Amino acid sequence: MERLTQFLRQLTYRLIPSLKEHPANRQNSALLGVTFIFFLLPFFVAGTAWLWAVTDWQVLIDNWGILLFLFLLISQLEQRPFILPISLSEKVNLPIQTSLSNLLCIATLLIFGPSALWIDWLAGLGSAIQTGWKDGRQVNLPFLTGFSSLIQASGTSIVALLLTGFVYTATGGTFPFQANSFADWLPAIWSILVYAITPIALYFLPTWSVIIQSGQTLRRQTFIQLLGGTVLLSLLNAPFALPLALVYKAEDLPLFILFCLAVAGTNMLAYFLSQFNLLTQTRSRELRRLENLGQALITAPADGSTLAETIDQHLQNLFPNDHLVIHLFAELDDEKAPVWPIFTWQTESSWPNVPETLWQRIYESDETSLVDRDAKLPGSKQSAGHRFLVKILIADESETVRCVGAIYLQRIPSQRTPAQVLPTLQELASQLGSALYRAQTHYETLQSQKMAQELAFAGRIQQSFLPNKIPQHPNWDLAATLIPARQTSGDFYDFVPLGNGRIGLVVADVADKGTGAALYMALSRTLIRTFAMQFPDEPGKALQLANERILDDTETDQFVTVFYGVLELENGRFTYANAGHNPTFHLNGSVQSLSKTGIPLGMFEGMEWQQETIEIGVGDHLILYSDGVPEAQNDAKVEFGEARLLAIAQRPFTQAVALQQAITEAVHTFVDGAPQFDDITLMIVTRIK
C-alpha cells in the first residue's frame, strides 16, 4: 500500500507539474482527489455503461414530470448533506457525510426501475459542478475537485443502486414494488442490505490509502467502527424507501409528494443541526487551545525567550489547513526597541510569504483588525478565502497603547463567517499582548527595580482587559466604571456577547491586592468568559466549571467573588448566579436584593451554584458593585454603607451613566480625600423601553 501511495503522489505531480509550488493544503487536496479518481474511476465508467445498457428511455418519457420533481429534490438534498465527524487524531478527521437522497433514489428505483437512475447520475453531476466551483477555489484546481466529486458521488451511488436493482429482480422482485405478501418484501430487504454494503467495499481501498497518506495509524477497532457506522447509517434510513414506493403504487400522488417533501424537510433539519454542531465543536476546540496557550504563557519564562516554542506547541492546529502567521515588529515608531525575541512564526512554510505591505497596512491602521473578503494570494488570480489582520497590542508607560506585532490568517473558503473567526484571533492577540507585556515589565523590573513602575504598566495592560466600549441597545442603557485603589486591581467587570439577543454581565472581586490579585483576576476573567460562551443559558454551570479549572490551574489561597447574570435584551429576563459577592440591587419601585447563591470561586472543589431568574421592567435599574463602594471609609473610619448607596439609587434617574456618576461622586464626597483602600467597581443597567 505504501508503494501505491508513493505512485499516486508521483502521478499527481505529473498530472499537475506546478503543484509543487503550491501550499501544502493544495497539494494534499490534489492528492486526495487523484486518489479517489484512481480507485473509483473504473466503477464510475462501468456503472455509467451499465446504466446506459439497461435504460428504457420510454420510461423516462412517460414519467418525466414526477422524475423531474424527484431530480430537483435529490439535487437539493445532495447539496445539503449532514455530517457525522469521526476523529482519528487531533489532526485527522474522517467525517461520515450523507443525506436522505439515497432514500429517494431507492424509492425511485423500486417504482420505475433502473432507467430512472439517470436522475441520480445527473444530480451527482450538478453537485460536482458546484463542488468544483466552490471548494476548488481553495486549491485553484476546480476541474480536479469537481471531477473527483463526480466520481465519488455518481460512481459509487450508481453502482450501488444498479447492484441493488439487480439483486432485487434476481430474488424475485418486480417494478413497481408491491407488498401483497411477506415474500414480496424479501427481495427488497436483500437489495437494501446490498445497497448498504456496496459503498463500503468501493471506498475501502481509497480510504485506507488516504489514512496512510496522512501519516496516521488507525486501530482495527476504530476502522471497523468507521465502516460499521457507515453501514448502520444506510440501514437506518434506506428501509423507509419501501413504504414511500408503496404510496406511489397506491396511485396517491399528492401523498407521495407530501412524503417526499417531508423527507427533504428532515434532511434540511439534520443539515442545519450538523452545521451548528460543527461550528460549536470548532469554537470549543479553539477556546480550549487558547486556554491551554494562556496557561503555558503564564508558566513560561517571563522574558519571553520561549514564546516562539510555546506558540508552535499550542497553535499548529488552531486553524487546520489555514495559513496562520504571527509577526513581531523589529522597529517601532516610538524608538523603543522591543525587549523580547523578534520572530515570524507560521503554521505552514510552503504558503507564500506575507507581503511587507500587509504588515505596514495593519500597523498604520486606526483599526485593531482588518478583514479582506475573498482575498487573493500573491501570484494568484483566484480567491483563497477571507484574510484577517489583527494587531497585537500592549500598554505603554504613556497613556497610549502600542502595536508591537500582528496576526495574519488566510482562511480557506468555509461555512464560518468572518464574525465567527475574528473573536478567536482577537483573544489570541490579547494573550500574546499579555505575554509580551510580561516580558516588557520583566525587563524593566530587572533594569530599574522599581515596583511602582512595574505596577503602573500592569495596571494599564489590565485596563485593556476591560471592555473597550459599553454595549448599545435601543431598549437598554448601560454604564460601568472601575476605580482601582492601586496601580493594579483585583476587581473586574465584563460584558460577554452570548448571541441570540443575550449579554452576560460580570462583576468580580479577587480577595487580595497587588500583582498576585491582578494575575488571578486575568485568569478568572478568561475562564469565566470561556465557560460563559460555552454555556450561554447556564450561569451557574459556567461558574461551576470556572471554579474547577481555577482550582486545577492554581496553587494559592486566593479566591474571587463573582456576580454573573445573563440578560435577555428583548424580554428583560435576567438569570443570575452569585458566588459570594455583594448583593446586586434590583430597583423596580421597591428594592430587591439578588443575594448569594453559592460560595466564592477558588475555595473548594465539587461546589455548585444555584441560579435565579427575575424580570426587569421598563424603568427598572440593576446596580452591580464591588465591596469597595459600601466599604469606602472617611478619615473617621466610618463606612459609606449600603443605605447611602440605596438612598441615591432611589432618586429618579433615566440614564444609567447619571446614576453611576451620582454614586461615585457621593462616595468621593463622603471619604473627603481619605486614602482609598479597596477597588471600586460599579455597573448600572437601566431598561428604558
Question: Based on helices, strands and strand pairing, what is the structural class?
Answer: alpha+beta
Query: Strand-residue fraction?
Result: 15-25%
Low-confidence stretches: none
Task: Find the count of extended strands (DSSP E, 2+ residues).
Answer: 17
**Strand order across the biggest sheet?**
4-3-7-6-5
Question: Per the principal axes of the C-alpha atoms, what is the gross shape?
Answer: elongated
Explained architecture:
The protein has 689 residues and is α+β, with helices and mostly antiparallel strands. It has helices at residues 2-15, 24-54, 57-62, 64-78, 101-112, 118-134, 142-170, 182-213, 220-237, 241-249, 253-299, 307-315, 356-364, 418-448, 451-463, 514-534, 539-553, 641-649, 656-671, and strands at 82-87, 93-98, 323-328, 344-346, 369-372, 386-395, 401-411, 476-483, 491-499, 502-510, 560-568, 573-579, 584-587, 591-594, 612-615, 621-625, 680-687. Helix 5 (101-112) packs across helix 7 (142-170) and helix 11 runs parallel beside helix 14 (418-448). It is elongated and about 100 Å long.
Topology:
Layout: H1 2-15, H2 24-54, H3 57-62, H4 64-78, E1 82-87, E2 93-98, H5 101-112, H6 118-134, H7 142-170, H8 182-213, H9 220-237, H10 241-249, H11 253-299, H12 307-315, E3 323-328, E4 344-346, H13 356-364, E5 369-372, E6 386-395, E7 401-411, H14 418-448, H15 451-463, E8 476-483, E9 491-499, E10 502-510, H16 514-534, H17 539-553, E11 560-568, E12 573-579, E13 584-587, E14 591-594, E15 612-615, E16 621-625, H18 641-649, H19 656-671, E17 680-687
